Amino acid sequence: MNLWLRVLAVIIRTFFRPRLAFDGPSELPFRVWPHDLDINIHMNNARYMALMDLGRLDLIVRSGLWRTVFSEGWQPVIAAALVRFKKPLKPFQPFTLTSQVLGWDERWIYIEHVIKADQAVACHAVVRGAFIRQGAVIPPQEVVDRAGGGISKDLPDWIAAWRGLDFVS
């Protein structure tokens, strides 16, 4: 239930925040609540990923892409994530999530998420995802065009190596 309240809060905040280009950056403030904690009394690893969903939601809504998502029946999906946890977040600690599109290739859109607390990076992640409709992937160029364009396609060199990894045949 608590995530639904955060989803609602993110959506309501979009009415009071400026429009955003699809490549962001989106910045969202949060606080670690008791229901975010694991048995070690710091934020649960899965909660980081759930909050990153909210960063992507903010990008979709504030860029105006949500209109296309609803009208065309698109569904955003994540196919892979690289995550590095650098320091724990403690109960009631405030933090900021920054989300930004890094670029895209012929199949995936790559989005970076950085969580900072006390001016230090607590978690850094890059996800690759897509929008699908009836099981088919929407070409990333079409997504970018429908989001208003203007985003660089160029990706960091290390992403090419990541794309080449295939853990399961």
| Mean pLDDT across residues | 92
How would you classify the helix and strand content by structural class? alpha+beta
Number of beta strands: 6
Give the quaternary arrangement of the chains: single chain
Uncertain runs: none
Named at the architecture level, the CATH assignment is: Roll
What can be said about the biggest beta sheet?
6 strands, antiparallel
CATH superfamily: Hotdog Thioesterase
Count of DSSP-assigned helices: 5
CATH class, please?
Alpha Beta
The rounded distance between the terminal residues' Cα atoms is 37 Å
Shape type: globular
CATH topology: Thiol Ester Dehydrase, Chain A
**Mind telling me the C-alpha Rg?**
16 Å
Order of helices and strands: HEHHEEEEEHH
Query: What proportion strand?
Result: 25-35%
Structural domain count: 1
Task: Report the helical percentage.
Answer: 25-40%
Note the main attributes of this structure.
single chain, 169 residues, alpha+beta, Thiol Ester Dehydrase, Chain A, six-stranded antiparallel β-sheet, 5 helices, 6 strands, globular
